[in-house]
Amino acid sequence: MNNTAFKGDKYSLYCKEHSAEFSSELSNSASAALRGWFGRSGAILLALSTLINYSDALARGNPYAGYMLFTYAIPIILLALYPALTIASPVLNKRSPLVLDFLSFAGLMGFCAVLYIFFLGTTSEGDLQELSNSIIGQISFILMLGTAFSYKAVYLYTFLRNIIFTMTVAAATNAIGAVANQLYFILLVQGILGGTMVSWVFFDAVRTRFYLKSTDADTRQHLYNQLSKLVYPHQLERIKLGDELENTMPLKEGKAIINVFDVQKSGEIRHERTQDFFMGIFQSFLQICMKGYEHNPLRSRAFRLKETGDGFISAVGYPFLPVDSRSLADSAVATALTMFEAFNDEVEKFNYSRPIKGAMGLAYNSVQGTFQSGGIRSYDLFGDALIQAAKYEELRKQPVLWDIFCEHASEMGLKNFNILIVQEFVYNSLSPSYRELFTEIDLTDKRLVEKDFQLMYDNEAKYIYFQVLK
């Protein structure tokens, strides 16, 4: 009992908090009912009642029998024309609860008109008594039927409406000669109580349906919003259309330039907002990657592959096509330079006491997409390009190469610097304007040979190219 009351309070509170949406839902439901089987059934029932009453009046020799054909004319015509009227005037949909109230009232007044015609054509005392008994037998059901359905957002309004309808029917039937005895009033009370109970059950069902429908929609929207944090928009659209997650991203082997970024000496950063600093960098990089994103065909400036604590890995050319017509190498270097600009902006906002610099490695080779075989099916890339790009970024950790980098930076007047290291294959694919940005290191340089330097995972390379940036 307490649980039921609690649910009722929950539904009531929710409907109050969302009164505008609840009213709109009720209007749509009332309009759909009037245009659907409910309205058609009501029109047919009133038409049959009209024919039966007309036939009965004729059989009784009632001289006013012809008027019986017009007693329910207004509600019948309105129900028949309502679909067309809503097309001609869509605003009528918003007023559909009032239209339903008018139809209920018109139906009750039509019943009173039927009684009036029967009474008007009755001459003998016996026929009058028989008719009165017939009225007493019908009034309870007719009143309950006329007050049972309502689409008002506040039930108090429905209850007040039912009282007005009952008082009007009581006054009308009494004015036309109905017997105002004790049984008659008991049946009136039964009619309004029965209609009130039915209308309350109907209202509670509508309210419950609205709550469940709305909260279910809210839940679905919440799930959609959370899922959008895990997959790309085009994946969401394909999943909504019934496609499997594994079919929403490319899985065949392709070629790409992988960009591996890392913050130099990140382990030495001591600050209470270090995590926020890294998140700011990655968010800026993601925005750069997503620039120009579209899904037909699938393309963007770069594909964010993963974040690795203080690092960021992205791919240009796979699984997303580049957004411009430049060579893949030009697009990758342009994206890398833009990322360094964003990184410097984040460093400036961080306002650390010592310089913070980053490093990137670019390498071109084969890659392939895959979804994890079990558990959470996250999308990933594997292939030689990822391994080589990581190794190129880590070249800064080789003492002999770091000395060369520092020497070049010193010539530029830089003590601390960002560094971009690219594979020979990437460099050779660049346009002349981008090649001019890089400095070449011959792997046969005596300084490297003396240190027995070996470039792993790219045995065919003869040169390394780097760019020092502020």
Task: Write a brief structural summary.
The chain is an alpha+beta fold and 470 residues long.
Q: How do the SSEs run, as a string of H and E?
A: HHHHHHHHHHEHEEEEHEEHHEHHEHE
Quickly count the domains: 2
**How would a crystallographer describe the biggest sheet?**
8 strands, mixed
- Quaternary state of this entry equals single chain
Structural class: alpha+beta
Percent range for β-strand residues: 5-15%
Q: What is the radius of gyration?
A: 40 Å
- Total of helices: 17
Low-confidence stretches: none
User: Strand tally, please?
Assistant: 10
Helical content (DSSP H or I, runs of 4+):
55-70%
Tell me the distance between the termini: 72 Å
Mean pLDDT: 86
- Can you tell me the overall shape? rod-shaped
Describe the 3D structure:
- It is a single chain.
- This protein is an alpha+beta fold.
- It has two domains: 2-225, no CATH class; 249-469, Nucleotide cyclase, GGDEF domain (Alpha-Beta Plaits, 2-Layer Sandwich), CATH 3.30.70.
- The protein has helices at 2-17, 19-35, 37-59, 73-88, 91-94, 96-120, 125-147, 155-175, 182-227, 233-240, 274-289, 328-350, 384-393, 399-411, 424-428, 432-435, 446-450; strands at residues 253-263, 294-295, 298-299, 303-307, 311-316, 358-371, 379-382, 418-422, 439-442, 463-469.
- A hairpin with a 2-residue loop joins strand 2 (294-295) and strand 3.
